[in-house]
Amino acid sequence: MDSATAPAVATAIEDYALIGDCHTAALVSKQGSIDWLCWPRFDSPACFAALLGTPDNGRWRIAPAETPVNITRRYLPGTMILETLFETPSGSAALIDFMAVEKDSIVRIVEGRSGSVEMQFELSLRFEYGSAIPWVTRLNHGSGLRAIAGPDQVVLHSDIKLHGKAMTTVASFTVRAGQRTRFVMSYAPSHQPLPVPPKADEALDDAEATWTVWSGRCAYRGRYREQVQRSLLTLKALSYYPTGGIVAAPTTSLPEQPGGTRNWDYRFCWLRDATFTLLALMHAGYREEAQAWGAWLRRTVAGSPSQLQTLYGLAGERWVLEWEVPWLEGYQGASPVRVGNAASTQLQLDVYGELIDALYQEATLGLVRPTASWDLQRALMQHLEEIWEQPDESIWEVRGGAQNFTFSKVMVWVAVDRAIRGAEQFNLPAPLERWRALRTRVHDTVCRFGFSHARNSFVQYFGADTLDASLLLLPLVGFLPPEDPRIAGTVEAIGRDLMVDGLIRRYHTHQTADGLKGSEGVFLACSFWYVDNLVLQGRHREARTMFSRLLALCNDVGLLAEEYDPVSRRQLGNFPQAFSHLALINTALNLDTHAGPAEQRSQGGDADGEVGEEY
Questions:
Q1: Are 61 and 79 in contact (CB under 8 A)?
Q2: What sign for the dihedral angle of Cα 531, 355, 294, 46?
Q3: Strand blocks (E) in 125-215
Q4: Average of pLDDT values for 571-588?
Q5: What is the per-residue burial (b if ≥16 Cβ within 10 Å, else e) of 153-183?
Q6: What pLDDT does 249 receive?
Q7: Which of 73, 510, 526, 573 is packed most tightly, with the most Cβ within 10 A?
Q8: What dihedral angle (degrees, nearest 10) is formed by the CA atoms of 86, 88, 93, 97?
Q9: Residue 291 and residue 369: Cα distance in Å, rounded?
Q10: What are phi and psi of 44, to 5 degrees?
């Protein structure tokens, strides 16, 4: 079957689940199909790309031959091991999917639970984002195959015999109660020897033990523990273990509007996530991961402050050039499919605030010595003093031209404020008189030009009358206290103007020159920020009600995309989204603790942290 006649993949975004090994990740549909996998890294070319095209662009499907009467899914408690239970008229069978620990392998085990179930196996490997058909040969021993194309090779070991049909590997088999049928696929560069797949049952035990131990370290014991733990596991699965970087999402080009063009590659690490990530990990008890993230930040931004980027590759790579993939039709026809992200070249002033705040927080929390990044911070500050008045593309990476975005200038204030606090708290050398004058000037400028008396609200950019949900972060970063009338007015205005079905949009796309066609859904992180504001204002009942509404948007295995469409009641955007899960964790902590991340960040951190080792 060629691409012109193969049926499009119609699985809803929320009908996928994630499996991963802290190097890469795969999306598994409710129908038992792995429709997205990049090997060996998150940002490598996909070898299963049906998610963004057709089955002919690569997938691996294991499912009952007859249509199931019921499908239920779960993760084994405290793990990233996915179990999909198919119930059919003749019996039930579980499909257990996971990635083996440190083995570059996917393991799929079909386990009979009752009666007998006839299963079908279908494997279409397509390297280079679904374009390269590999050369497939049988292994000399056992049942299995080797597939190779250019730099990539995959080996599959199977408990059953497989055969080829129309450029696809297929098989049928029956599983009965108590029986297991196993498949293990392993990756290696093609110039290296054949990879040796692990034994499936042993790999399952190892993975369960590893994930259970890790999730058991969660220090949060509040009423939302299950949801927080699942979000932490998701963040861990989105982390790149060799470097400590965390990708925004494991996917590219899942649309922010059905059939639309707002489709971006999120398989990179964003500086805007810096402080959110650090505080979420620390408050949840994951000190080592927080240290690894901080070390990634410092290594990645090392160099000339004028070359600071908004996003980087997994190891800090700076070249992430954006291009379009013409042979993939896009998720349910949403094109173009993009690889790379041109936002890496934009000026976004907010990243200076995020970065310096994160560096300040890690020193305050005792993750590093206060001097670990001080020379870097001083260099960043010197550059920021020169450019802070320039217009930029904002936290939302608009492509309609630079503006003096209010939130960007607020984050300039955050950068200066945290640099001053660091110098004062740790007695570090700094031009404090000049910095204090700049802090006052930036604050006055924002309050003068970024606040609309007519709307009784801060506005999207200087002189505008439009709103922007990023303004919800003003009290969370300490720019003004939550009880300030200007903050109360801003929260009220955003709730009145940007709320849809109890959830918050980033901004009105028809009122904002973001350079893009079409609309988008509500932005889940912004909705969590609204809850944080309710908490800071003491409106706890409203906060919990809205938080419960947000939790109900998680799919059946607890995952969230970037956005949500209240009309179609579908998740939108890349999936699962680290920003959404970070916001969920931080909001749960704000609701259930006396000094959550919002309180800590707005106050500048806990000065009693123990000083750690320098990195």
A1: no
A2: positive
A3: 135-138, 143-149, 152-158, 163-165, 168-176, 180-189
A4: 97
A5: bbbbbbbbebeeeeebbebebbbeeebebbb
A6: 98
A7: 573
A8: -20
A9: 12
A10: -75, 160
